[in-house]
């Protein structure tokens, strides 16, 4: 496949696959259903998607087989490859946590001293223990780590958690967070790309940034009494000054603003107290700043 296309590695089949493809599609790339294929070429961009095992993605990017890749930050840290994190993508969020049998308690990290910890992330766990000056035995297990304590193989585990349901099923409970992860876009450290690939990458990054920005923002519309406009403006965390539109009822104005999604529920009550009505919050598909 030495066709000059930008090569992006994506997890073949797993938790990050759909959201990675969704992100690329939101960037305007026309990607056909991948089914069982290992390489898919976008119809409207010089880009090939290589579907690979996620554990292998950091090395493939390091070695230049793929120019860039989308993979969990946990995998990047664990594999310790010579790559660069270009963007945090905000999906695939999870935490690597220490978990202990339900009937036990751990008060502080010091209680890990001398314990046996089963994990699929030995490098991250060892780094955490070293940073906290703890000597403990790290037992590497590649899957079903949760059963290690009940088998007597380990005293506790360190594993990825999102809801905690798997832990509960295995009579374990969460304690400290060792590492927080989300999906990241990675690139080769020396990005050994020729000029045309650089252009493809730069343009893709611009598109990704605008999609990420849009995902974190919403378009807010509301009607407000003219006399309360200053109060409303003070509440709004808008990017620039809001759009103000006159209404048929001359005592009222329509106010439109782009706001960070997570601020809406904090300001909603204040907007209503300032007389805002007909509040609408709309998704934004793309945002070019
Ligand atoms: P998979 O191999 O399909 O389970 O995908 C694993 C990747 O998904 C991990 O490397 C994480 O980056 C991410 N992930 C997100 N939530 C979780 C979770 N609850 N458990 C395991 N991995 C998760």
Structural summary, described in words:
26% of the residues lie in helices and 32% in strands. It is α/β, with parallel strands linked by helices and 289 residues long. It binds adenosine monophosphate.
Entry keywords:
3 domains, flat, 6-stranded mixed beta sheet, 289 residues, Alpha-Beta Plaits, binds adenosine monophosphate, D-Maltodextrin-Binding Protein, domain 2, single chain
Summarize the structure.
26% of the residues lie in helices and 32% in strands. The protein is of the alpha/beta class.
**How many helices?**
8
Gross morphology is flat
Backbone structural class: alpha/beta
| Name of the CATH homologous superfamily of the largest domain | Periplasmic binding protein-like II
Question: How much is the average pLDDT?
Answer: 93
Rounded to the nearest angstrom, the distance between the terminal CA atoms is 35 Å
Strand content: 25-35%
Bound molecules: adenosine monophosphate
CATH class of the largest domain: Alpha Beta
Order of helices and strands: EHEEHEHEEEHEEHEEHEHEEHE
Please give the order of strands in the largest beta sheet. 2-3-1-4-11-5
Return the CATH topology of the largest domain.
Answer: D-Maltodextrin-Binding Protein, domain 2
Please tally the β strands and state the result. 15
Low-confidence stretches: none
Quick one: biggest sheet?
Answer: 6 strands, mixed
How much helix is in the residues? 25-40%
């Amino acid at each position: 496949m030495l066709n000059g296309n930008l090569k992006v590695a994506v997890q073949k089949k797993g938790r990050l696959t759909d959201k990675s493809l969704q992100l690329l599609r939101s960037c305007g790339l026309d990607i056909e259903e991948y089914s069982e294929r290992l390489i898919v070429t976008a119809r409207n961009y010089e880009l090939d998607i290589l579907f690979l095992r996620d554990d292998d993605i950091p090395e493939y990017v390091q070695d230049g087989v793929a120019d860039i890749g989308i993979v969990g930050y946990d995998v990047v840290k664990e594999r310790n490859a010579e790559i660069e994190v270009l963007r945090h993508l905000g999906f695939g969020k999870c935490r690597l946590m220490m978990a202990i049998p339900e009937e036990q308690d751990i008060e502080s990290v010091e209680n890990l001293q001398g314990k046996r910890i089963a994990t699929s992330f030995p490098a991250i766990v060892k780094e955490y223990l070293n940073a906290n000056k703890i000597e403990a035995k790290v037992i590497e297990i590649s899957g079903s780590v949760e059963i290690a304590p009940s088998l007597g193989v380990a005293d506790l585990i360190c594993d990825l958690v999102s809801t905690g349901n798997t832990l509960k099923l295995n009579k374990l409970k969460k304690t400290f967070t060792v590492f927080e992860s989300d999906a990241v876009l990675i690139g080769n450290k020396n990005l050994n790309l020729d000029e045309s690939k650089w252009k493809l990458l730069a343009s893709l990054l611009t598109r990704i940034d605008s999609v990420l920005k849009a995902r974190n923002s919403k378009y807010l519309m509301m009607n407000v009494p003219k006399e309360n406009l200053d109060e409303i403006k003070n509440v709004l965390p808008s990017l620039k000054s809001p759009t103000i539109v006159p209404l048929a009822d001359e005592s009222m104005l329509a106010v439109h603003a782009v706001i960070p999604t997570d601020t809406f529920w904090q300001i909603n009550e204040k907007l209503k107290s300032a007389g805002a009505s007909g509040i609408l919050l709309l998704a934004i598909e793309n945002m070019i700043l």
